[in-house]
Amino acid sequence: MTTTLDGKVALVTGGSRGIGAGIALRLATEGADVALTYQRDDDRAALVVKQIEALGRRVLAVRADSADPDAVRAAVDRTVEELGRLDILVNNAAVFLVGPVEQLGPDELERTLAVNVRAPYVAAQAAARHMTGGGRIINIGSNVARRAPFPGLALYSMSKTALVGLTKGLGRELGPRGITVNLVNPGPTDTDANPADGPNAAAISGLTALGRYAVPAEIAGMVAHLAGVDGGYVTGASIDVDGGFAS
């Protein structure tokens, strides 16, 4: 599933670490210039910038809190202003707030919906104003939108399930313009936030058919496929890259 993205410009939200960093690097490897947003860690963002520059691609890091719709819109507009266009939007930024439903109050609800639901909508809305035929919007969901394996996931699962409707609706609306919209649902993936050697990793791995965590590059490979010419007839789809977690 390799593709060439020479001449394309991508924006990856939450692109300084974990799956987002893996996606940003893969798109750059495929030839795209890449903008990425991050919330607070300047050093992590600078590292990804350095890695992309080493690939010979232009790169832009934008500090932006995805809970702020104005910041999300500004990141899209700045990408177009500084890199000249926008062909690919990857809505990856998310918060993972879990716990008993009785203990997750209005603040947790507001932030989860702001980052995981409103921000992808706002970013897609802003990006659609700049995209032409061949544009790609790729939302990053979660395996727990398909299967909640343990208690405490109701809020997060709800927020990620909302992306199914967003993806289908936008796919239908933007299809006539030649813009595709798809959803990738990663399974357990080895990142700082969810390490493959963490205390619950063995149990989580056991929930997959393959019996292991993914690495970010495996999620990024599917995103690169959807972003490229070979993904041009796929839209409104939800694609599980979860090692058989939802099987």
UniProtKB/TrEMBL annotation:
Keyword Thylakoid: no
Domain spans labelled Ketoreductase: 8-207
InterPro entries named in the record: KR_dom, NAD(P)-bd_dom_sf, Sc_DH/Rdtase_CS, SDR_fam
One GO MF term attached to the UniProt entry: oxidoreductase activity
SMART domains, alphabetized: PKS_KR
Membrane-crossing residue ranges in chain numbering: none
Origin superkingdom: Bacteria
Keywords, comma-separated and alphabetical: Oxidoreductase
Keyword presence, Hydrolase: no
UniProt xrefs under Gene3D superfamilies: NAD(P)-binding Rossmann-like Domain (3.40.50.720)
Family to which this protein belongs: Belongs to the short-chain dehydrogenases/reductases (SDR) family.
Name the record gives this protein: 3-oxoacyl-[acyl-carrier protein] reductase
